[in-house]
Write a structure and sequence with these properties.
By secondary structure, this protein is an alpha/beta fold. Helices cover about 40% and strands about 10% of the residues. It has a five-stranded mixed β-sheet, covered by helices on one side. It is a single-pass membrane protein; Single-pass type II membrane protein.
Length: about 200
């Protein structure tokens, strides 16, 4: 019987050369992405030349939330349901008589006018986030209530609707141009000066 030949051998002598050529190919053709920063020239540091303006304590409405979620307004306990009313009364107090559109009590011990009035919100490190947001919403609501009132008196519609339409990119340019001046006018009457004080409590 004829002798059967074995399986033909594969010449693997050039496999190393092929692998090396493939490695070079991928190294040359592969694009390596690199993070690119923003190229900005920072202005030189200049110490302030003017002293910060002195703010009277009566123009600051302090609101604090302790670790138990209790509300302290001007260092007195207050229910959340009464906060918006108290903030509104402070903002439009008009103590110095310069605010012709304010309907406040003109208490000399409270804010002089809405432009000078500042609401300072402070919370404890252990304050619940939901409580903090609820309190902040009530304070912003006080601003919006006053702005809506003035917008209705001057333009016959709520400020919040006007602002929403003005900020909508789909609003026609002509309409936005008309709303821009009106929105700014109402914002200037009751500027939102809501300051978040440094958080208190232990680390």
């Amino acid at each position: 019987m004829p002798r059967r030949k074995g399986a033909p051998e594969v010449n693997a002598g050039s496999m190393a050369d092929i692998a090396f050529l493939l490695l070079i190919f991928f190294l040359v053709t592969t694009t390596i992405e690199t993070d690119a920063g923003l190229d900005r020239m920072l202005p030189p540091f200049e110490p302030p030349t003017e002293e910060p303006p002195v703010i009277k304590q009566k123009n600051i409405f302090t609101v604090s939330i302790n670790r138990n979620g209790q509300l302290l307004v001007e260092e007195k306990l207050m229910e959340l349901t009464d906060l918006r009313k108290a903030a509104t009364a402070f903002l439009e107090n008009g103590g110095d008589g310069t605010c012709t559109y304010c309907k406040g009590k003109k208490d000399p011990n409270s804010s002089d006018n809405p432009v000078k009035a500042i609401i300072s919100l402070k919370n404890d490190r252990e304050t619940k986030y939901s409580t903090y947001i609820t309190v902040q919403n009530e304070l912003v609501g006080a601003y919006n209530d006053l702005r809506n009132r003035e917008a209705q008196a001057r333009y016959g519609r709520d400020f919040t609707d006007m602002e929403s339409e003005y900020l909508n990119p789909e609003t026609p340019t002509a309409v936005r141009d008309d709303l821009k001046e009106k929105v700014k006018k109402i914002q200037d009457l009751f500027p939102q000066k809501l300051s978040e004080a440094e958080t208190s409590g232990n680390n």
